[in-house]
Amino acid sequence: MCLGLCGCVPHTELNKRAIVEALGIDYDGSQYKVTFQYYNLSGAGSRTQIDPSKPNVLTAKGTGSSVYAALKDAEFNCGRELMLGITQIIVIGREAAKQPLKSLISFSAAFYESHPKVKLAIADDTAEKVLSVKFTEGSVSTQKLSFMFETAEKSGYVGFPSMLDTFIDLSGKHGSLCLPLLQEVDDGSDVTKEGKNVLIKGGVIFRDGVYCAEIDTEETSGLALLDGKAENTTVIVDYEGARVAVEIFDIKTAVLPAYQDGRLIFTVKTTCGGKYLDSFIDEANASPDDQIERLCAQQLIQRMETATAALLETNADVLRLQLLLKHHSYTDWLKTSEQWEQLFPESLFVFETSVEISRYSLEE
Questions:
Q1: Which end of the chain has fewer CB atoms within 10 angstroms, the N or the C?
Q2: Cα–Cα distance between 40 and 58 in angstroms, integer?
Q3: Rounded to an integer, what distance in angstroms lies between the CA atom of residue 24 and that of residue 8?
């Protein structure tokens, strides 16, 4: 019986499919436009999967009244059935991002192979511009972007939510989340033949699934610290006329919610280790660890304070604090659930941050 079922699922040979690496979504006010990069199978050699002497990525475009319709148009234009199972990045243009976010990514329901871990980002201008940057590093162009996203997230620079994360956030009561903001620049960089590059400019806050506000990289870094996504980061502090670089690692953050005297209070406790990234200290003398640890802690707190200020100003519960309160104290959640939109902008955040420097330099 099992052997008889193996042919029940329709299939298409890989050489007849467009294996999409990156997808861009734009909107011109009346129609959606999609741009996607897909493997050039004619660039595959007999011994290796990718032949570096040939262009390994091709670009296809399509337009339509919805993202799904635009994808089907692009599918017709490139003459191949789309395969979204290994797509790494979806970039949404600025104008498209002002449409309801759920409507932009609902196409994934029709493409059942869509990978739930594909990363989402917003373009400062159009998604097409971002995807037009063809990096020379990596076997395919999008590898460079994937590596950049991964490094930025681990370094506490900005979080890169996946498609699955986004659907979960949108299904929440307030539909709040933050997506990274990308910018295409012409900086003479040698990572592309044209001297172009893609930089992380900051982030975009969504509330009720709708574009709400932009934030800068200090605020996105603060969000990454608060959300527990940052594995390490770097701070530079001024100490007695010297600029001291310290790598912060082993970051652990806990948020304790409470409802007292009619006000929401969130106590944020952060602990982390640190090491100097240069050997400015004469280790024969007394070390200034205590002072520099305090300076590092103050800088981390400043990042988190700017992030929470942005959340309170937009009334966007990006950190899912209402759900956290429900798990922590169901009684307090019941008291606040109907008034959350009035109470949250007046919330108080209390920060307790500890940095313990355990190493002086990379030479040890």
A1: N
A2: 6
A3: 33
CA end-to-end span of the chain: 64
DSSP-derived secondary structure letter, 169: H
334 CA to centre of own chain: 32
Question: Sign (positive/negative) of CA torsion 219, 225, 230, 235?
Answer: positive
78: closest CA among 92, 57, 97? 57
DSSP characters over 215-257: E-HHHHHHHHHHTT--SEEEEEEEETTEEEEEEEEEEEEEEEE
Residue 352 to residue 350: CA distance in whole angstroms: 7
CA 282 to centroid of chain Cα atoms: 40
Contact 292, 237 (CB under 8 A): yes
Closest C-alpha among 278, 242, 272 to residue 361: 278
Question: Which two three-digit tokens encode residue 227?
Answer: 């959300």
Rounded Cα distance between 323 and 87, Å, is 31
* pLDDT 10s digits, 253-301: 999 999 999 999 999 999 999 998 876 555 544 456 788 899 999 999 9
- C-beta separation of 133 from 67 below 8 A: no
Report how far residue 321's alpha carbon sits from residue 327's, in angstroms, rounded to the nearest whole number.
10
Provide the CA 175 distance to its chain's centre, in angstroms: 16
Q: Residue 333: enclosing H or E segment and its boundaries? A: helix 330-336
pTM for this predicted structure = 0.87
